Structures are given as C-alpha cells and as structure tokens.
C-alpha cells in the first residue's frame, strides 16, 4: 500500500500500488458480490459472507488500511481505504463496512495505546470479528448532549446502561464501541455485543444491504477505551473519517449506475435508433457524468485532506458528504429514468442502488445539513475540530 505522507503533497495522484489495490478489490468484488450474492445476503443471517469478510482482512489487507503496521495493519492511509471502499460500494458489497472499517477501526487507531485498544483492534483488522459504533451524533458531528448511555464503576470494572438508536451494522457485530456519560464527562468503552445485558432490536430499513438496530444496554460489562480527555476527539475523528469513506462508497455506487445507464442507452432502441442518440437522453447522461466527476473529486479531496492534515477536517468531511450524497441520489433517480419502465421493477438491480443512495444520504447527515455546516465554518461561526491523527501512548 502507499505509505501515508508525513508532509502534504502539492498534487494528488494515485500511485501504482493504489492502482493495483483498486484492481484487487474489484476482482474480489466480482467474485463475492455479484447481484445474486447481494440479493441472497441481504436477507441472510448474518447479513454478510463471513468467509469473504475474513478474506478482506487476511488476504487483501483492506481492513487494515490506515492502520499502522506496528498495530497489525496494512499501513497506507485514508486514501487507500477510500479506493477500496469505492470498489466495494460499486458492487453493493454486503458487510459491516461502515460500522467496522469506516467508524470503529479509525476510532481505535486514534485511541490511546492500551490493552483494550490493541485486543479489540487486532481481530477487526484480521477480519475474524466485526464491530459497530454506538455513538450518537448530530449530522455527522459528535454531540455529547445526545449521549444517553450511563457508565458506572471503577478503573477496572465498568458497566453501561442506556439505549442507542439506529446503529448501523450492529445487529451482527461482535464488539460495540460505546460513548457513555461518567459523571458530567464523556468516555468511550468497548462492550462485547454477545455478552449479558446487551439487547439488539433489528429495524426495518429502506436499504436491506445495510441493516441497522437499536441497541439497549442493561448493566452490561464494559472496558474503558478512552476517558474524557480523549473520548470527544476520538469520536469526532472517527465520524470525519467515516464521512469521507462513505462519500467514496457513494462515488462507487454512482459510477456503477452511470455505467449501467450508458450501456443501456447504447443497447435500447426506439424508432429504429439507440435511445442514447436522442438529445434528451444524451444531455441527462452528460449531466450524470458531471455530477459523478464532481463527487469523485470531493470524496478524494476529503480523504487526502484528512490523511495529510491539509484542511479543517470538519470542512473537508462536510464538503465530501454534501457533494456525494446529492450526486448519488440524483444519479440513482436519473438512472431509473434512463432505464424507463424496467428501472422500476424489483427484478432489476437499480432499485438496490437507489435504496442505498437515499439511505447513505441520511446516515451521517443530509446534504442540506452539511451545506449549512460548510457555511458556518467558512463564515467562522463554528468552532473547527481539533485534528487527531494517530494513537498516543
């Protein structure tokens, strides 16, 4: 994998190693995430192929991207992770990408060095366990006021009680990263999701490929990951990284829909001509391409900025989400129109991407909410987040 740069680059370009990474993940996706596999897994229990997930960690090293090698990771950085997630998003890969790779692993990397951090991180990187991020947020920004879980205990023994709603990928997770209130402070804990005192209630959601659940803790045993001095920064770092990685996934899904639409416009004939020869269809496809390229630039700028610390992380994350959420939903809707009647049918794959597009657009804040945050940051009415890039001893 490409090494994370210690100083900002003047220009962004993909390295040969990153090009090879993209090819490897694309090949993996074609093998494990074709349309038939997606339809089967989204209704399965657990809702992903555990062997394929293990391959992502052990063989491809995708789950260790952005994790330092001394912590058992693959090295590289956020840009490398974005490349992999873009390809997985293009294939609508069923697996805890958001909960494990985009949220929990970045949080653990940013956490202080401790046995709890190391023991939790290693199996996630290897693909033998999964995790979910049970941390409430307000449109992708950590909000301590929204933390309702309470923690009680001592330095060695902790218990958490409370409820966290709509936690992505939590239904089948092995570990839960939980934000809880300790006195009047916030702290981060790791909870064994299969242990006593943890109840997970699956939710009916639009996107069956990305399940969510409400998680209830009733005096569940927990291990302290970070106290109040670090917990807020760690949560915010994880949410910013997740925002740009989710943007990369949105780019992948939008590219797949654009490719489908262009191919269909070349094949479908009306009045003895391919529909792609008609001006209205050509203009729609051209607009979709412009939206897609704009989204790709925003997503990779966000990943690059967070990796090299070249911009305010909150601003870079919100630009990526505002742009990519809008682009993916618009391209999904336009793809349905290009395909005509067939685009509305259950049998066609477009509806799967359509549902993913509108679900992704709501997970970490809507495009409108991120545009408002961008305006606040640019006008200096919001407090920029303090950068946190690596674990501290």
TrEMBL record:
Its cofactor is FAD. SUPFAM superfamilies: Acyl-CoA dehydrogenase C-terminal domain-like, Acyl-CoA dehydrogenase NM domain-like. Keywords: FAD, Flavoprotein, Oxidoreductase. It comes from the Bacteria. CDD domains: ACAD (cd00567). Residues 15-127 form the Acyl-CoA dehydrogenase/oxidase N-terminal domain. InterPro entries: Acyl-CoA_Oxase/DH_mid-dom_sf, AcylCo_DH-like_C, AcylCo_DH/oxidase_C, AcylCoA_DH/ox_N, AcylCoA_DH/ox_N_sf, AcylCoA_DH/oxidase_NM_dom_sf. PANTHER family: ACYL-COA DEHYDROGENASE, ACYL-COA DEHYDROGENASE FADE28. It comes from Mycobacteroides immunogenum. Belongs to the acyl-CoA dehydrogenase family. It holds the Pfam family Acyl-CoA_dh_N. This is Acyl-CoA dehydrogenase. GO terms for molecular function: acyl-CoA dehydrogenase activity; flavin adenine dinucleotide binding. Residues 235-377 form the Acyl-CoA dehydrogenase/oxidase C-terminal domain.
């Amino acid at each position: 994998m490409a090494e994370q740069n210690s100083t900002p680059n003047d220009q962004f370009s993909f390295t040969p190693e990153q090009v090879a990474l993209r090819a490897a993940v694309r090949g993996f996706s074609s093998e494990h995430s074709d349309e038939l596999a997606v339809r089967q897994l989204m209704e399965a229990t657990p809702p992903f192929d555990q062997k394929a997930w293990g391959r992502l960690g052990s063989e491809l090293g995708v789950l260790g991207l952005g994790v330092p090698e001394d912590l058992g990771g693959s090295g590289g950085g956020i840009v490398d992770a974005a490349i992999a997630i873009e390809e997985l998003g293009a294939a609508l890969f069923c697996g805890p990408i958001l909960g494990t790779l985009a949220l929990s692993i970045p949080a653990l990397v940013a956490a202080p060095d401790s046995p709890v951090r190391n023991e939790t991180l290693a199996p996630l990187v290897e693909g033998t366990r999964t995790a979910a991020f049970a941390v409430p947020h307000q449109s992708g920004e950590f909000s301590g006021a929204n933390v309702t879980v309470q923690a009680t205990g001592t330095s060695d023994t902790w218990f958490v009680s409370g409820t966290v709603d709509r936690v992505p990928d939590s239904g089948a997770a092995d570990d839960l990263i939980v934000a809880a209130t300790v006195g009047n402070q916030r702290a981060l804990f790791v909870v064994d999701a299969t242990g006593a005192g943890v109840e997970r209630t699956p939710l009916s959601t639009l996107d069956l490929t990305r399940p969510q659940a409400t998680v209830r803790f009733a005096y569940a045993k927990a291990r302290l990951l970070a106290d109040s001095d670090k917990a807020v920064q760690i949560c915010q770092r994880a949410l910013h990284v997740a925002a740009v990685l989710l943007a990369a996934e949105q780019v992948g899904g939008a590219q797949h829909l654009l490719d489908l639409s262009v191919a269909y416009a070349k094949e479908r004939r009306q009045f003895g001509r391919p529909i792609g020869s008609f001006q209205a269809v050509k203009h729609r496809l051209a607009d979709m391409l412009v939206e897609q390229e704009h989204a790709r630039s925003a997503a990779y700028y966000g990943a690059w900025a967070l990796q090299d610390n070249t911009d305010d992380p909150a601003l870079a994350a919100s630009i990526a989400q505002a742009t990519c959420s809008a682009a993916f939903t618009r391209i999904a809707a336009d793809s349905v129109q290009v395909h005509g009647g067939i685009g509305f049918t259950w049998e066609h794959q477009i509806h799967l991407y359509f549902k993913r597009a509108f679900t992704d657009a709501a997970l970490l804040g809507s495009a409108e909410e991120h545009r408002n945050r961008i305006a606040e940051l640019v006008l200096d009415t919001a407090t920029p987040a303090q950068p946190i890039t690596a674990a501290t001893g």
